[in-house]
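Today's session is about reading a structure prediction critically. Students often jump straight to the picture, but the first step is always the sequence itself: look for stretches that repeat, for charged clusters, for runs of hydrophobic residues. Only then move on to the predicted structure, which in these notes is written as discrete structure tokens rather than atom positions. Here is the chain we will use throughout the hour.
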Amino acid sequence: MWKQLSEELETAALRTAGNLVHIGGSGIPGRTGLIWGDGLVVTLARQARDGESVPVVVSGGAEVPSTVHAWDSRTGLVVLKVPGVLDPKWKTTPVPGIGALVLTVAFASPQGPEARLDLVRFVGRKTEWGKGVVLDEFFQTDGNPWPGFTGAAAVDSDGRLLGFVTENRAGNGGFVVGAVDLARLVETLVQNGSPRQAWLGVSTRPGGGQGLVLLSVDNGSPADRAGWKTGDLLVSLAGEAFKEPSDLVAVLAGLQPDREVPARILRDGQVHDKPVTPGGR
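Below is the predicted structure for this chain, in token form.
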């Protein structure tokens, strides 16, 4: 029985590894990408720009050029254009139940694929993965967030895709987006491209836990039109308070461009309500 399971897992790992790429390079932390279709790869990134070049290593060790087709700032999901990779025609299956064994396969470094056997410790339904993006189902495993396993494939013993390894909103590893949800989100990015991102036109620094100091306000920007000024303290936006510039980035990811939102500014010791209409880009 053990020998049979071992052989099945080895076969599934080898089959899965052939459908993965390694993504990394100067200034880019190593991670895994799933080949999703002819010329398409799916991975995750904290920042990306349409048309940006990204180094990719394919099975066999060859480095090939790739470019960003679309990026969703709310989830970090990225679709890359990678010439030459072929549609793996993933067979998908719903998320497993608690206690199930899951084979996690990654292309964690250019040296080759890695695999580990995880246990499903939790299954969840209807949760937010990034502002406004709701997953129908996800699961968490007992696997550690090893370097390069971001974007790894979680499969069953038959090599069917169960999900896509990421992290939850708290930054905890072992969070796996179900294959059905992943397919839906990727298809939207492939068809529609990058969602427009809300933009204010400011640079900021922490304001001692009370908000964010505006270091600059671009001329003609949404913030400028709202009456914000360099030196102001941004206390809140859309009802959310800030401590770090990353907090503002997270709030902007959930806002719709061209729709006014409330904002509070502290200037010369006085709090002012100065609503702003974020632009889109």
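Discussion point for the tutorial: The longest helix spans residues 2-17.
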